[in-house]
Amino acid sequence: MRVAETLKSANREEADLLTKLDLKRLPNHVAIIMDGNGRWAERRHLPRIAGHRAGMKRVRDVIETCARLHLPCLTLYAFSLENWRRPEAEVDFLMRLLREYLKRELPEIHKNNIRLLIIGRSQQLPEKVSKEITDAMQQTAHNSGMKLVVALNYGGRAELADAFNAMLDRARQNGLSSFRADEQTISDHLYTAGLPDPDLLIRTSGEMRVSNFLLWQIAYAEIYVTDVLWPDFSRARLLDALLDYQTRERRYGGLGAKHSRAAPPERDGKPSRSGPHSTPSVGG
Ligand code: FPP
Question: Does residue 32 line the site of ligand 1, with CB under 6 A?
């Protein structure tokens, strides 16, 4: 398949960007902080909710593009625990938008063999939302294509607290005195257990923050911040981010490919895996 055919009806700009992309060196997991909906609307003298609606179109484009590029995993930060501080009308609108999205897009998601996973404290969401997302996850549970992870009512610190409590519960059952947690044990108790850590974290609208998103998992992610507001984050801008990622040298605390050693040092009494979960030294 020619690279430009990867995206259905790619325009000239997208086709040019695609020719530069090395499809063999794409990230395994892209995580996105979709920011700037409110500013996009304000600049057009529209209500903030118009920005969220426009942002929704980009959600569709980005999912489709990542699936066509055969990325194994895409995570979108849709609603944080902190977002409850927004006016009630905006929160209600976001919940409605999400339900509307699921209803409209789930058949397409399913048809494209995408597996939907929702992470966060979903049991604290309004009952209707919570039920609908559980049903949506069940419907796509056997799909083997891209994993689409939607972080909803999510906070990175809350996720860590939940993981520690889950580990403690298990330890109490099995005898606390012999319990020891290593990095893998912690990863295995996160909402994202079994998923690769993000290789690339994208944040739109220019803020240099991680906003309590996947705090443990982004330890070695490459960070790409763009001034583009989320509703303007087109397929071409996603390709820009992927191309930028391909210019990065990933070192995981070491000295890079030229100096790499055959076997990484032992950690926690087990051989260390090369990659995001290993923490061989400070820096890099
Ligand atoms: C940030 O913009 C955006 C949000 C808090 C919501 C993002 C959610 C969507 C686009 C819908 C997602 C739905 C699915 C199914 C993934 P902001 O309001 O913080 O913008 P501002 O910083 O300019 O005010």
Answer: no
CA of 38 to the centre of ligand 1 (A): 8
Q: How do residues 221-274 score in pLDDT, each as one tens digit?
A: 999 999 999 999 999 999 999 999 999 987 777 777 666 665 554 444 444 443
Residue whose CA lies nearest to ligand 1 atom number 14: 78
Can you give the length of the chain in residues? 284
Centre of ligand 1 to C-alpha 230, Å, is: 8
Evaluate whether 144 touches 152 at the Cβ level (below 8 Å): no
Q: Using CB atoms within 10 A of its CB, is residue 120 exposed (0-12), middle (13-18) or buried (19+)?
A: buried
Distance, CA of 92 to CA of 15 (rounded, Å) = 39
What's at 34, amino acid-wise? M
**By alpha-carbon position, which residue is closest to atom 24 of ligand 1?**
38
> What is each CA distance from 153 to 4, 81, 244, 274, in whole angstroms?
37, 5, 30, 32
Task: Tell me the whole-structure pTM to 2 decimals.
Answer: 0.89
